[in-house]
Amino acid sequence: MSRILHLSDLHFGTEDPAVVQALLQLAEEQQPSLCLLSGDITQRARRSQFAAADAFVRQLPAPVLAIPGNHDLPLFNLPLRLLDPYGNYRRVFGESLAPQLSRADLLVIGVNSTRAARHKNGEVSNRQIQRVAQQLQQARPDQLRVVMLHHPVCAIQPSDLANLLIGREQAVPAWVDAGMDLLLAGHIHLPYRMPLTGSGQRRAWALQAGTGVSQRVRGSIPNSVNFIEYGAVSGQRWCQVTRWDYAFEQTRFLAVEQQSLPLDGSD
Question: Would the pTM of this model clear 0.90, i.e. be above it?
Answer without folding.
Answer: yes
